[in-house]
Automatic annotation (TrEMBL):
Superkingdom classification of source: Bacteria
InterPro entries according to UniProt: Uncharacterised_pept_Zn_put
UniProtKB keywords: Membrane, Transmembrane, Transmembrane helix
Lineage of source species: Bacteria, Pseudomonadati, Bacteroidota, Sphingobacteriia, Sphingobacteriales
Originating organism: Mucilaginibacter mali
UniProt-recorded name of the protein: Zinc metallopeptidase
Residues annotated as transmembrane: 20-41
One Gene Ontology term, aspect cellular component: membrane
């Protein structure tokens, strides 16, 4: 994967917290995942969709990062983030809409996400709809490589593109619809809705990769081997695989992100088609037979 020298995003900041704010719900409940291991790849911090108060920000100062002060991992993430800005700005223009970029927020150990509460690094990357920020402790990249056996820059890029996919959902009003439905569904039924939300974010990540390959984003180049690496990452973080690894058994009713096969299917469909209109995971689930 080629990225060095590509445009870096201006929408990057950092800030960490030692605690405070609302506790992030781990396992069961809002996200329906079993234990911290399964929760490591959250996709979206759904806690922020349903919680209205403000966390205590007194222990955290957020500030923009100068390009000259970026680490290699931060620079990589910033370039990939910029490529999502390029792709989605173009696609929103095609839909006669305006794309407004989220902010990429780096943190270490813990962070107070405005509107979503306190999160530790164990949470993994997440998107907070309330403040339109993608949060990531870059130590997760080591987890992705070592614990999930998904090494390589393309796997890392997939993670970032997936989180941005949740921002796209937010801009298109899908997150608000899920929020409204939450109050009317049982936990099992809401988990099924959460799976659809996550699979669509996987699809949007694939759409991003499709257009990067077509050079709609300057400075980032991906090839077929990179797509295979991203597919490996999508497969590695399916609910069924993670539950089997962490608990020794699988509980489909608790799935909130989709099976390994489903996640890989929707990412590949986004990559193959590049057609935003074909990402309606909320309709008939064509991949149910996988």
């Amino acid at each position: 994967m080629q990225w060095f020298g590509g445009r870096e995003s201006d929408n990057v900041e950092e800030g960490s917290s030692s605690g405070g704010g609302r506790g992030l719900f781990l396992g069961g409940g809002a996200l329906g995942l079993i234990g911290v291991l399964v929760y490591l790849f959250t996709g979206v911090n759904v806690n922020g969709l349903f919680n209205s108060g403000q966390p205590d920000q007194s222990q955290q100062q957020n500030h923009k990062i100068s390009s000259a002060n970026l680490t290699t991992d931060q620079r990589f993430a910033s370039v990939i983030f910029a490529s999502t800005e390029d792709v989605w700005t173009s696609l929103f223009n095609d839909m006669s809409k305006t794309y407004t970029s989220p902010t990429l927020h780096f943190f270490t150990d813990g962070v107070d996400a405005q509107g979503c509460g306190f999160a530790s690094s164990a949470t993994g990357p997440f998107y907070c709809p309330a403040d339109r920020k993608v949060y990531i402790d870059l130590a997760f990249f080591d987890e992705l490589s070592n614990r999930f056996q998904s090494p390589g820059e393309a796997a890392k890029a997939y993670v970032i593109a997936h989180e941005v996919g949740h921002h796209v959902q937010n801009l298109l009003g899908l997150s608000a619809k899920v929020d409204a439905a939450r109050q009317q569904l049982s936990q099992t039924e809401f988990n099924k809705l959460s799976v659809k939300l996550e699979l669509q974010a996987d699809f949007y990540a694939g759409v991003w990769a499709h257009y990067v390959q077509q050079a709609r984003s300057k400075g980032v180049v991906i090839n077929r081997a990179d797509i295979d690496s991203a597919l490996t990452a999508a497969h590695a973080i399916g609910d069924d695989r993670l539950q089997q690894q962490s608990t020794g058994h699988i509980e489909p009713d608790s799935f909130t992100h989709g099976t390994s096969a489903q996640r890989a299917y929707w990412f590949k469909k986004g990559f193959d088609t590049g057609d935003v209109r074909q990402g309606n995971t909320f309709g008939k689930r064509e991949e149910d037979s996988l």
